[in-house]
Amino acid sequence: MDSKALLRFDLNLIKVFLTIWDAGSLTIAAERLGLTQPAVSHALKRLRDEFADPLFVRSGKVMEPTQTAIALRAPFEQALQLVGGTMRQARSFDAATSTRQFRIALTDTGEFVMLPRLLAALQARAPGVGVRSIRVQPDDLATALRTGQVDAAIGYQPLLAAAGCTGRHLTTDRIVCLFRAGHPLARQPWTAEAFGALTFLDVAPDATGYRMARDRVAELGLPYRMAAQLYHFTVLPEIIRRTDHAALFPVSVLTEVNRHGEFDHRELPFDLPPFDVNFWVHETFANDPGLGWLFALLTRAMETRDDHIPR
To answer: Could you tell me the pTM of the whole model?
Structure first.
């Protein structure tokens, strides 16, 4: 690439290239980048014209990289890291005067537990700083963090560690069996058989801790009778309060909703480890002073939690 070509080269094309590489699909890449598929197709055409190579060719349902694309990947990764590092060094962070808008990937449980404390802390210490909660599918998180679609992700996401991301511990959570106070179950011995006799409200969210519990139930072959399937965790307590249904539920959210003692719970009648909720950033942005400050602020905010759930 000559100097004139370099001057006209759009650095956003690097993000498009790397996202297509990760996704193996123009449609999925468009979703991850928040663009239309025609926009991604146009960006790929510009890359193809620039390097006189198709770069990605369809093989079945996926886009396979060509040898030219394989050769470009490492330099493009390095370029993105260099630009990101330079921007961080040039950008100081003064919380009192900053107007930065942090984009954080959160599930609805993360929003419920984290956002009230985080926003209260921001109002007191950095009134100009804002937060955008962005929903990202777990399989797309690594790409979203690497390309800067989101600044950070909060949750139990163990696969991110192998994808060039760094997780800093915020809290530890666990899944319990939730039901209403006064439920007939409370007067019976708590066994795997009692668990299997319940009817459950099932959820289909992005929360990996919940998915781990559901996978364990299936692995053990325990009965799991489903009364209804919902999407959001945070609607479950209102239904549980009015019915005899139960739910697999994170303690972190139960702590928040049970302030008036309307709910009861039991530990699961089988082994399921607790899980760490981390603050995840891509290693490219690990030294971002703003993200470091945000993590420290959130850590302090989480330390003020009132835990009403017995251990």
So the answer is: 0.71
* Structure token pair of residue 88: 């961080």
Q: Are 94 and 106 in contact (CB under 8 A)?
A: no
What is the number of other CB atoms lying within 10 angstroms of the CB of residue 287? 13
Does residue 180 share a domain with residue 59? no
Q: Are residues 75 and 7 in the same domain?
A: yes
**CATH classification of the domain holding 86:** 1.10.10.10
For the chain, the helix, strand and coil percentages under 3-state DSSP, each to the nearest 5 = 50, 20, 30
d(CA 84, CA 285): 7
Q: Is residue 209 part of a domain?
A: yes
Give how many domains the chain has, as a whole number. Answer: 3
- Residues 199-220: tens digit of each pLDDT: 999 886 667 788 889 999 999 9
Q: Is 145 exposed, middle or buried (0-12, 13-18, 19+ CB in 10 A)?
A: buried
For 294, the token pair is 């945000």
**307 domain residue, yes or no:** no
pLDDT of amino acid 8: 66
